[in-house]
Amino acid sequence: MKKLLKIITLVYFIFSSVGIASESTSGNNKMLKLLDLLNQSMEEIKVINGFERESDCNCEHRINEFFPTNSLLESALKIELIGIKDFDIEGIKTNITSILIKLESTIKKYKNNLSDEDSAVSFILEIEQILEDNNFWFDDYKPTIRDTFKIQSGFGFNCFTKSLLILHITELYNLPIKGILVPDHFFLQIQTNKGHINWEITSKKNRMPSDDFYRTHFEVSPYLEKANIEMTPLSKEQILAEVYNNTYLHCKDLNTKQILINLAIKNSPKNPYFLGRRGTVFQDLGQFEKAINDYSLIIKMYPAMYLPYYSRAVNYKNVGQNKLAKRDLEYLIKNFKEQLSKQDLIEVTEEIKKL
């Protein structure tokens, strides 16, 4: 939990909506003030041990005393708080101040030149070099905020967090850059006078791929409906939902997981993955009818996704509705046989025999 708060605290200050990078001096003063406020508040916040004692502390009320605005990562701070003595506030101040100043300087330089394609490419390469020089490395294999941000050894980023850092600053200068969400991935897109350039924020060498790269790459997944492959800008609500979801992924307490995934769904109500995760929470809590309702909603909106049929069948069985469970499993084999692995096919067939 100590590491987790450091992670969340760091992410908050990178993406806070208080205008950190609007002007170097005033922006940095705001950032330092917020850091000091958080440091002072630590002694007042009761320890939450792995979310198990959340009810002992009205952390939402306490944190709102210091962060009253609806900031991007307000949710994570509200839900996941723990008092720590070794909070490296000076180290965080130095690192964030340094990287924001350097990024801001480059962004100002290109403010009126990004419509030219060559300038856009130069901008991408220059920003990437700054991140690399300042030890803002990318880790392809650790996709959650908890795993990727490491304060002591530098800052590790996944596609979502690294892109969001750049977006936060570029939006303050109205640069023609937007975030694009495709299934399981997030990248940037720069608008130019000839169209757009995709900016792939990963360690891969191909950092500016064509649109076809995304459509071809993500189309092979049997979990996805083709309609989800289209590249669309990520709204502020979707970004907030992703943050709630990221916090959910490394939370163990079921009741808190339910709070987080409900908040994610509130901001992105048609996201099938969020609905499916809430269904899993309901199932783990023994609330099988509610789980059935969530999986039914996914099936209604995204009939080409096969996993919800299996999950709903499991919960039908849990409430003794074996005929409905059998119906879903038979439908699964009939309509999604090619998408099922051999092992999945064997297990589903055996399950049907038991019903």
Salient structural properties:
two-stranded parallel ribbon, 2 domains, 355 residues, 8% strand, elongated, 4-stranded antiparallel beta sheet, alpha+beta, single chain, Serine Threonine Protein Phosphatase 5, Tetratricopeptide repeat, 16 helices
Describe the protein.
This protein has 355 residues and is an alpha+beta fold. It has two domains: 2-232, no CATH class; 270-354, Tetratricopeptide repeat domain (Serine Threonine Protein Phosphatase 5, Tetratricopeptide repeat, Alpha Horseshoe). Helices cover 57% and strands 8% of the residues. The chain is built from 16 helices and six strands. It has helices at residues 2-15, 24-41, 59-64, 74-79, 89-109, 117-133, 145-148, 159-172, 211-219, 236-249, 254-267, 272-284, 288-301, 307-318, 322-336, 342-354; strands at residues 136-138, 155-157, 177-182, 185-192, 195-199, 232-233. The protein has a four-stranded antiparallel beta sheet with strand order 5-4-3-6, with helices on both faces. The longest helix has 21 residues, at 89-109. Mean pLDDT is 64; it is low at 1-93, 138-157 and 218-230.
Q: Write down the overall mean pLDDT.
A: 64
The succession of helices and strands, N to C, reads HHHHHHEHEHEEEHEHHHHHHH
What class would the helix/strand composition place it in?
A: alpha+beta
End-to-end separation: 43 Å
Low-confidence stretches: 1-93, 138-157, 218-230
Strand arrangement within the widest β-sheet reads 5-4-3-6
The residue fraction in helices comes out at: 55-70%
* Strand composition percent: 5-15%
Number of helices: 16
Q: Note the main sheet.
A: 4 strands, antiparallel
- Molecular shape: elongated
DSSP E strands, number:
6
> What Rg do the Cα atoms give?
22 Å
Total separate domains = 2
